[in-house]
Design goal:
This protein is an alpha+beta fold and 195 residues long. It contains five helices and eight strands, in the order E-H-E-H-E-E-H-E-E-E-E-H-H. Helix 4 crosses helix 5. The longest helix has 16 residues. It starts with 6 loop residues before the first strand and ends in an 8-residue tail after the last helix.
Length: 195
């Protein structure tokens, strides 16, 4: 018997991000298909980069596609690294080390926010955009091994934990990506996908 579930392409080559989407969209009944678009993030905003990825994946696959762009914005660094968050170094450890080096000598607390824009591209339709954020604080030491990106140095207010110390279900309560996906689900846009 053929699978009658609607298919949604997730435009990412990041295994951690794909895992989050599998968790976040688990109750939707959608069949998620991973697709690494290898699109250059040339946009000047999260929305522009998310749109580039979603449109490329949808065009190539002929299916609805979800793309996102996210970053960490640190107040004392005027929003740096922002849309360049993934470009501070080739590995997670090197990126976090580079950020902490820039923050060295700056007065704490290092307040900031994670931000995520999710784009839903459906063939023949206008791209829908959804945004989520999580405010918090960058801490000077790596705490926890869960998550990816800057998760182990981002302390979530009121929890006493970094994202790196949280299990997936706890991170879902607070994360910027989870907030963006909740906005997407609440919009009803996923309910209108064709099979």
């Amino acid at each position: 018997m053929a699978d009658s579930r609607k298919r949604l392409v997730i435009a990412t080559g990041n295994a951690g991000k794909l895992g989050e989407y599998r968790d976040l969209l688990a109750g939707t009944g959608l069949e998620l298909v991973a697709y690494d678009t290898d699109v250059q993030e040339t946009g000047g905003t999260y929305a522009a980069n998310a749109r580039l990825k979603a449109e490329a994946a949808s065009k190539t696959s002929g299916l609805p596609a979800l793309g996102d762009d996210s970053g960490l914005e640190v107040d004392v660094l005027d929003g740096f690294p922002g849309i360049r968050s993934a470009r501070l170094g080739p590995t997670q450890k090197e990126r976090t080390a580079a950020l902490l080096e820039r923050l060295s000598g700056r007065p704490r607390p290092w307040k900031g926010r994670f931000i995520c824009t999710v784009a839903l591209a459906v063939p023949g339709r206008t791209v829908d955009l959804f945004e989520g954020e999580c405010r918090g604080e960058v801490v000077p030491e790596w705490r926890g091994e869960a998550g990816f990106g800057y998760d182990p140095i981002f302390l979530v207010p009121g929890t006493g934990k970094t994202f790196g110390e949280m299990k997936a279900d706890e991170k879902r309560q607070y994360s910027h990506r989870a907030n963006a996906v909740r906005a997407l689900i609440a919009s009803g846009a996923l309910d209108r996908l064709s099979g």
